[in-house]
Write a structure and sequence with these properties.
about 450 residues; mainly alpha; two-stranded antiparallel sheet; 2 strands; globular; glycosyltransferase; membrane; transmembrane; transferase
């Protein structure tokens, strides 16, 4: 272990920090009550159906509203354990969260040689409230963060390319089956490699291999969707649905809104009502909505580009400077109702204090991350036009990945919990920015 980590003191420090991180996560899971609501309840229902041998179904029907990788993985964990208990899902999160933390350490070692930076970054992520609290939720957040950390780890560590590129392609494929935005990720990985080496053949070969392996990984699910729904659906059919709800004339906050409240043409409204059987059918099962609402969103955006840009900026602010209201809403939403009436005032005061601290942490990380992007964006742009200018991984990996997600959130949807998969990159960017300022 010392060969990969360092001297005995470093091994002891990392081991103790990791054990403390595991203990705090486990304590939160056991002591902080929460209900699984909305998407989180749906994920548990689908995973339960997989556990029971009913396949990837919801309310008795096949579904592909969201990515399938997480509910499938959870469903098979349920099968192995022999129970669909929510506690099992939380312990699965705990395992993935711990693995993400370990991967993050090795990622930091490739991004900097400064031990102080590495250990500060590792400690911040180990104790980050978001990464502790979301172990309590049956959702994709912890799973997606682990996927992204694994993808970046495989980009940074060199070994036999006959195995490395296919493994990276599979990891990207699994990430795409979790969140379809990763279908475009081979371009991000290839660009980062090209900026560092400025070769032509190798990045092109890498792009082809990654795209091919990713496509092979998702192909069985795409074929299943074609058989079930009669049209080409690579991963899920909620893209147009989400795109529209976040971008229509009645949207003022850039986030999700109930479909009856969204602005649409009379013809589209009537067609939506027919598809949903006037409220009798779940929107999550109505795959026919996707192309219809996507077309409606594109029409509105073309006619209102300035309003669309305003919504995009609001989305970014909500994602990176919206605080951590999501921790209260999703990871501890039963805690308040379990308080005795004579302790509610004290509880509210404690929660406001908790929010003050945790909001400040996210705001600081976001500010330092954007600072790191700003001071490095010019060298990256110049590198595209100057063959002799190289960009090392400590710059390209955090920034290209952050810019990729920023672009997605600007276009589609933003909310506080959407920063979760990026938090380890934000911690890395923050400590690297401070290291650069000190230097």
């Amino acid at each position: 272990m010392q060969k990969f980590i360092g001297n005995t003191k470093e091994v002891v420090y990392l081991t103790l920090t990791t054990l403390i991180a595991i203990f705090i996560r486990l304590w939160w899971i056991i002591n902080i009550p929460t209900r699984q609501v909305f998407d989180f309840e749906t994920y548990h229902d689908i995973a339960t159906n997989i556990y029971l041998g009913l396949g990837h179904t919801y309310l008795g029907e096949p579904i592909a509203f969201q990515g399938m990788a997480y509910p499938y993985a959870l469903g098979y964990v349920f099968r192995i354990v022999g129970s669909n208990s929510i506690l099992i899902a939380k312990l699965f999160n705990l395992m993935l969260s711990t693995l993400t933390l370990i991967l993050f350490y090795f990622i930091l070692k490739k991004l900097t040689n400064n031990k102080r930076t590495i250990f500060i970054g590792y400690t911040i992520l180990a104790l980050l409230p978001n990464y502790i609290a979301y172990n309590n939720v049956v959702g994709t957040e912890v799973f997606a963060a682990f996927n992204l950390a694994l993808i970046i780890f495989l980009q940074l560590y060199n070994f036999d390319n006959k195995f490395r590129y296919p493994m990276l392609g599979i990891a990207i494929g699994v990430a795409a089956l979790t969140k379809p935005i990763f279908l475009a990720y081979p371009v991000v990985a290839t660009t980062s490699y090209w900026l560092k080496h400025k070769q032509f053949k190798e990045p092109l070969f890498k792009l082809v291999i990654l795209t091919l392996v990713m496509t092979i990984t998702i192909a069985p699910w795409t074929y299943r969707n074609y058989k079930r729904f009669g049209r080409f659906i690579p991963v899920s059919y909620n893209g147009g649905y989400v795109f529209f709800l976040n971008n229509n004339a009645n949207n003022t906050h850039g986030g999700w809104m109930p479909i009856p409240d969204a602005a649409m043409s009379v013809e589209t409204r009537e067609r939506v009502n027919e598809i949903l059987q006037y409220g009798a059918r779940s929107e999550k099962l109505a795959h026919e909505l996707d192309p219809l609402l996507q077309s409606e969103a594109i029409k509105w955006i073309k006619a209102n580009p300035i309003q669309y840009a305003k919504l995009g900026i609001i989305r970014l602010h909500t994602t990176f400077y919206g605080g951590v209201w999501d921790i209260d809403a999703w990871t501890m939403n039963e805690l308040r109702e379990r308080q005795p009436e004579n302790r509610l005032t004290e509880y509210e005061r404690n929660m406001r204090f908790f929010r003050s601290v945790t909001d400040s942490i996210i705001h600081i990380l976001s500010t330092l991350t954007f600072g790191y992007i700003i001071i490095n964006i010019k060298p990256i742009i110049l590198s595209f036009f100057k063959r002799e200018r190289y960009i090392n991984s400590s710059v390209s990996i955090p920034i290209l990945n952050m810019l990729f997600f920023i672009a997605v959130y600007f276009v589609f949807e933003g909310q506080a919990r959407y920063n979760f998969p990026l938090l380890f990159l934000m911690v890395a960017s923050s400590v690297l920015f401070i290291e650069k300022l000190r230097g």
